[in-house]
Amino acid sequence: ANNLTLLGYPVKWTSDTEFRYAHQKFVIIDNKTTIVHSGNWAKTSFPEDGMKANREWSIAMTDTEVTEYYRDVFDYDWGNGRDYDAGTDGTGSALSYSETSSTYSRPFDTSGEFSGPMNVTPIFSPDTSLQGILYCINAAQVTLDIQIPYFTNWNETGSVEQILDAIIAAKNRGVTVRVISEEEYDYEEVAHLFNQNNIPIVWQDTRWFTVNHNKGIIVDGRIVLISSINYSDNSIDDNREAGVIIENEDVAQWYQDVFDYDWAIADFDHIGDVNLYWDPNIPTSSTTIDVTVYGHELFADGITTVSLGVKIGSGAWSNYTITGTAFASAEGDLENFHRIIAAQADGTDITVQASIEAGGVWHVGEEMVIHVRNSIGSSATTPPPVDPGIAELIPYIAMAIVAVIGVICLKKRK
User: Fold this and answer.
1) FRET partner for 249 with CA separation of 20 to 30 A, picked from 82, 136, 222, 337?
2) What are the extents of the domains in the chain?
3) Going by CATH, does the domain composed of 283-375 fall within 3.60.15.10?
4) Over the chain, what HEC string results?
5) Chain segment 344-355, per-residue pLDDT in tens
């Protein structure tokens, strides 16, 4: 703040009577482009090449109507903010960062660019973030993928409890749910809660990433939420946060590829010891299904047997030994194993479960369901805004440029 002021740029602090923390990360450029981040504008969000970093999502939207909306929120916060004063606030000190080298190959270093009709829904805390998150979860019909650093306030009557209830309700209505979280903030109670409801939860890879700082949701491969919003009651109810829901299959699929990559290299919790997934995420009746069992966490123990259980519809289980199908993972080790399932009729649900014997011990993963669908019904109508003066939910035609950022994250839990 002091350096910007010395350069002649005005700086304000967000109102501390309206918000507990200014945790939003959005940028407005020339009243034409809006960038929404999960990460911060600092070295922690923009690491040098070859440095170990965490996972972030970002999106740039080049649409004047969308940008006008974010500008209205910025102007509201600016008008209620307090001027920075060096005498009162101090001049700060230089930031220092400890960085570690990484061999991460950055497979998503080229941004995706998409244009055409899409629903763009800005959301903000404390105005409409809970409403937006619940809209995404409740809209899920086939798949629901969530990447979030942590869940707090999990056993209280509040916003996070509503989110957890909605996730479990999605699972109970037949949606295949996956959660990537952060082991550093491992809340065992939440992991147990998901395990009790047969929802697999894994921890972000720490060989290539420092932590997971992303706050994203992907629904049915066609809706994506990018935001700064953590799953804590403070973040949802008290902070200023910003996010955007994009309803467009091309955009959502770009992020889906990133999520699937992170899922494939994730570390499993001790509750569920084997991870798997399949391609395509939502197969049709004309596509074969390539199921992969990920064994990287057991590779060092010496994998001797890999088994995949498959149940088509309500039929009997068939178990296949797939040890001989090993192929190289992203790390280059022969620690992934796969089996092709033949195309099935539209509407078929296929249950799969992986087991690995390593070091003389069997490890068994959660049962997961593959939904074969030639089409998915329309999602629910976007709900009305809580406060039309601050955070409307509106459809636009926009151009989206999406990016995934690897950053080092040194943060307080907000």
Assistant:
1) 337
2) 12-87+94-269+376-407, 283-375
3) no
4) CHHHHHCCCCCEECCCCCCCCECCCEEEECCCEEEEECCCCCCCCCCCCCECEEEEEEEEEECHHHHHHHHHHHHHHHHCCEECCHHHHCCCCCCCCCCCECCCCCCCCCCEEEEEEEEEEEEEECCCHHHHHHHHHHHCCCEEEEECCCECCCCCCCHHHHHHHHHHHHHHCCCEEEEEECHHHCCHHHHHHHHHCCCCEEECCCCCEEEECCCEEEECCCEEEEECCCECHHHHHCCEEEEEEEECHHHHHHHHHHHHHHHHHCEECCCCCCEEEEECCCCCCCCCEEEEEECHHHHCCCEEEEEEEEEECCCCEEEEECHHHCEECCCCCEEEEEEEECCCCCCCEEEEEEEEEECCEEEECCCEEEECCCCCCCCCCCCCCCCCCCCCCCCEEEEEEEEEEEECCCCCCC
5) 999 999 999 999
